Amino acid sequence: MKVILNKDLATLGEEGDVKEVAKGYARNYLFPRGIALPYTPRMIKVIEGRRAEIEARKEQKRLDARGLKEKLDTLELSLTMPAGTNGKLYGSVTNQTIADELAKNGYQVERKRIELAGNGFKSVGKYKAIIKLYESQSAEITVTIIGQEIKTESAPSSKPAPRRGRRDRQEAAQETPAEENSAEAAAEAATEEKSETAAE
Predict the structure, then answer these.
(1) pLDDT of the residue at 195
(2) Which domain holds residue 40?
(3) What helix, strand, coil percent values describe the chain, rounded to 5?
(4) Using DSSP, how many helices (H) and how many strands (E) does the chain show?
(5) Are residues 86 and 36 in the same domain?
(6) Each residue of 17-51: pLDDT tens digit?
(7) Which three-class secondary structure state does DSSP give residue 185?
(8) What single DSSP character describes residue 112?
(9) Residue 126 lies in a domain
(10) Is residue 54 part of a domain?
């Protein structure tokens, strides 16, 4: 069914555009949120009455995009990422990574407007990222990725106690009674010595 966009929607179009969409999408999503209006003679008149206002907003967006393009074209982002000795990153630099870095530099750009070759950068080096701005305008920024080697601390070696074999256990069992017997003999000898001393 045909609808008239009442607001900009990145995935569909801009305010005032006439689009063909699925009925369920229009009734369940676009109409309840006020993003689109039914394509009827009455709604067409409403939008046409706002046409000059809509065009003025579009022109302002073009100017803003042009100014942003000039700034972004000269921007070079430098990212330090964990990497192996071969220069391969642990993970990858995605459009969300670039969007976060741009935000740190004062530029609010939606991640879906950022295009990276191969859906992400996976090694250290210098790359180009394309940022779609408004209509056909886009900017190209330079992204330099520097590798940071992760140092792992070696844990102190703890040797497990040696396992006692069957023979060791048998010997230990045999030694125990002998030790007990010698202790008993010493006790008896001490008792006898006391008795002899008392008798004298």
Answers:
(1) 46
(2) 2-49
(3) 45, 25, 30
(4) 5, 9
(5) no
(6) 999 999 999 999 999 999 999 999 999 999 999 99
(7) helix
(8) G
(9) yes
(10) no
Is residue 20 within 8 Å of 26, Cβ to Cβ?
Answer: no
Check whether 199 has a pLDDT greater than 60.
no
Q: Which residues contact 116 (CB under 8 A, 6 or more apart)?
A: 93, 94, 95, 98, 127, 129, 130
CA dist 85 and 5 (Å) reads: 52
- E strands, the chain, are 2-5, 18-20, 36-38, 76-83, 88-93, 114-116, 121-123, 125-132, 138-149
CATH of the domain at 14: 3.40.5.10
What is the number of domains present in the chain?
2
Same domain, 40 and 75: no
Residue 89 forms part of a structural domain? yes
Same domain, 74 and 12: no
Residue labelled with tokens 């001393």? 197
What is d(CA 120, CA 69) in angstroms, rounded to the nearest whole number? 22
